[in-house]
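Final report, Chapter 2: Outcomes

The project's central promise was a pipeline that accepts a single protein chain and returns its three-dimensional structure in a standardized token representation, suitable for archiving and comparison. That pipeline is now operational. To close this chapter, we reproduce one record exactly as it appears in the project archive, with the input sequence first and the structure output second.
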Amino acid sequence: MSDFGSSVVSLKRLKKSKEPSTSSVLVGMQGSLSYLGTIITSSSPVAAQQRRSDQKQHAYRILQERDNGLPLLVKSALLEAFRIDSENTIELYITLADDEDLRRQWVKDCLKHLHLIPKDYEF
């Protein structure tokens, strides 16, 4: 074979070795489809409702475990705040779970602002 012929063969081999194999392309597509499926599933209304339900349950647990000493009126008003302004109120309540003083002050301010307890009520 001439030098030119062997150069052409070498270039074809080099080009072929750089092309992805069919199996690697399929694996890449499978990963992309799986990722796309996860995004669609997690953004579905059912998934969003499940996340809200999980957050409510978490907030109720915090209320029972960490704020059980609050007066019944306050606990009841807080549950009403969760119902009427659920996402924002619950999210902030959960965020403040580890800071009792700040959480209690926020609960007092929030409930008074929402007119769920009297402005002059102290606990």
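Archive annotation: The two ends are 97 Å apart (CA to CA).
This record, like all others produced under the grant, will remain available to the consortium after the project formally closes.
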